[in-house]
Amino acid sequence: MLPSLFASRRVSLTPQNISRFEILLFRDQLSFDLPKVNAPPKPPVFSSDKKGVDLRPFLNTLSKSQYPFYEDVDSRSVTVFTGGWCLPHKPLWGPHVAELHFTLQAHEVTEQQSYCDNALDDQQLRLWLAQHYQECDELMAMLNFKDAGNGFALWQEREPDTAKRVEPLIKCITVSGRSIYTHENNNSIDLWLPFGKRDIMSFSFNLQLVAPEKPEAWSDIMNKALQIVDCVQDSICLIKADDLSLEEH
Asked: What percent of the chain has pLDDT over 70?
């Protein structure tokens, strides 16, 4: 297992190929810098689809018509974009030894009862995130996932872990005047951006080794991964519909 992403020292990113990712969330506009993806898409759990996902330029977050529906599930979510980056170790022209996978999702937070204007209440949002990560832990405790090598995920049921659960550490930062909640877990980083009374976007990054590598290479791999994470995180911009109208006049 790789050491924690956040245990590495961050360095600035000066990529040659960065584009501006833009999508309309009904009437709101979300944008951020996205380095050119070059890794094969990672199929979602329970899926054999090897194709990437890109719902640009529009996601109907009002009708939720693009959101999958499952019975007996209160919250709904939809994958908006998937991509990834191959991370080589020195020399740069050599084969890549790790991949940083990125998934952008929109979530409908239907469980919350308390809201503040057009933003989720901080306390209620933290409770929802804690519940979200608890459910993820319970799922992974019950299912032991294995890669079958053909795009399918195989799993075996096992008894859930009854050890005392640790509450997830949720931090809050401000980017372009918006609150973004962060969660770190081993080789993964999640960014959560509330953008409506019942809506939140998640930016998920997961680092995986694809070839054996010596421990002394980990720092270089981590730095490359964090450059990409910082590039996306520090450039996130959400413009609400009312602000867009003002810009047009």
From this structure: 65
Asked if 55 and 80 touch (Cβ cutoff 8 Å), the reply is: yes
List, in sequence order, the alpha helices (H) in 98-196. Answer: 122-142
Residue type, 149: G
Q: Tell me if 142 sits within 8 A of 154, measured CB to CB.
A: no
Contact 23, 55 (CB under 8 A): yes
pTM of the model: 0.80
pLDDT tens profile 48-95:
556 789 999 999 998 888 888 765 555 688 999 999 998 876 655 567
Domains in the chain: how many in total? 1
Asked if residue 136 lies in contact with residue 202, where contact means CB atoms within 8 angstroms, the answer is no
Residues 73/111, Cβ–Cβ less than 8 Å: no
236 is in which domain, residue-wise? 5-248
DSSP annotation of 167: P
C-alpha span between 38 and 95 (Å, rounded)? 13
Cα angle at 84 between 19 and 7, to 5 degrees?
Answer: 105
